[in-house]
Specification:
Radius of gyration: 13 Å
Structural class: mainly alpha
Number of domains: 1
Largest sheet: 2 strands, parallel
Shape: globular
């Protein structure tokens, strides 16, 4: 999941509550990746990077904090 604005927060929380391991990825990190021209190719590129282990999840503190 790419973090842009605050729109990702509800979806992130729902997926996390249901047991998914969600990666929140900094949009600035992905901005430097070449070859993305549309949202479709962007999401495919993010999926590829994740499948080969090249994405780093951003720190998100536990809900108690």
């Amino acid at each position: 999941m790419e973090s842009t604005g605050v729109y990702w927060i509800p979806l992130f929380q729902i997926l996390e509550e249901r047991g998914f391991k969600v990666y929140l990825v900094n949009a600035h990190y992905l901005k430097s990746v070449p070859g993305r021209k549309s949202d479709v190719s962007d999401c495919q590129w993010i999926q590829y990077l994740h499948s080969v282990g090249l994405l780093r999840a951003s720190f998100r503190p536990p809900e108690a904090i």
